[in-house]
Amino acid sequence: NAGVMQNPRHLVRRRGQEARLRCSPVKGHSHVYWYRQLPEEGLKFMVYLQKENIIDESGMPKERFSAEFPKEGPSILRIQQVVRGDSAAYFCASSPDREAYGYTFGSGTRLTVV
Amino acid sequence: LAKTTQPISMDSYEGQEVNITCSHNNIATNDYITWYQQFPSQGPRFIIQGYKTKVTNEVASLFIPADRKSSTLSLPRVSLSDTAVYYCLVGPTGTASKLTFGTGTRLQVML
User: Fold this and answer.
1) In chain A, what's the furthest Cα-to-Cα distance?
2) Pick from A21, A42, A19, A17: which is nearest to A32 by CA?
3) Smallest CA–CA separation between A40 and chain B, in Å?
4) How much of chain A exceeds pLDDT 90, in percent?
5) Strand intervals (E) in chain A
């Protein structure tokens, strides 16, 4: 049973381009969480989604960032018109329910904006 | 939100027991204490979670005193592969947005 799969592992984008990060949760998990980690810092919560619904996006920047978790397929974190400050590691986690006993994290996508 | 304080770094030798303490003075009644481990270039891995007293699993033990204002993660007989960053999180279950990963404790295990 595969864990949380994130792709790509590394992504390089020029300023102004769009970045699309994909996350396939653990099979059977319907709750997905996205976090961002800047170098030498802890993870910061961005958004929590359940199939087809955004439950909590209190950590998402108001502009350029969006997330979805469609009925079929992976969850997508989209960053439009990327800037250098978006360079970070983006982690996705999943859980079988809201009250889960710990989340399962993926290995992350390292975004570099040049 | 309960703020946590843990040592920035710790060193140990293989075979020793390592205890990492986390302070959370303003922990709320419905808050749980959860520890994660993170290796370089990987996502955090859930280690253990507890509410009070002592919890033990195949990886670690978690000791929580009666006042719950601190907790101690105990790693028995560490090996080189336990070198990682360890995060202490405090918050109610089901509230991912309330969980704050601080800078963690960087554990270095040496031969």
Assistant:
1) 39
2) A21
3) 7
4) 77
5) 5-7, 10-13, 19-24, 31-37, 43-50, 53-56, 65-68, 75-79, 88-95, 104-105, 109-113
Which of A2, A1, A5 minimizes the C-alpha distance to A107?
A5
CB burial of B17-40 (b: ≥16 within 10 Å; e: otherwise) equals ebebbbebeebeeebbbbbbbbee
Shortest CA distance from A110: residue in chain B: B41
**pLDDT tens-place string over residues A22-63:** 999 999 899 999 999 988 788 899 999 998 899 999 999 999
The pLDDT, as a whole number, for residue B101 is 81
| Phi, psi torsion values for B97, nearest 5 degrees | -70, -20
Spatial contact of B111 and B54, defined as CB atoms under 8 Å apart? no
Above 60 in pLDDT, residue A1? no
Six token digits for residue B52? 């009070």
Out of B41, B46, B103, the one facing A41 most closely (by C-beta) is: B103
Phi-psi region of A106 (alpha: psi -120 to 50; beta: other; left: phi over 0): beta
Spatial distance between the Cα atoms of B2 and B13, rounded to a whole number of angstroms? 32
DSSP of B20-78: EEEE-TT--TT-EEEEEEE-TTS--EEEEEESSEEEE-SS-EEEE-TT-SEEEEEESS-
Whole-angstrom Cα distance, residue A95 to residue A73?
16
Which pLDDT tens digit goes with each residue over B21-61?
999 999 999 889 999 999 988 999 999 999 999 999 999 99
* Set of chain B residues whose Cβ sits within 8 Å of the Cβ of A91: 43-44
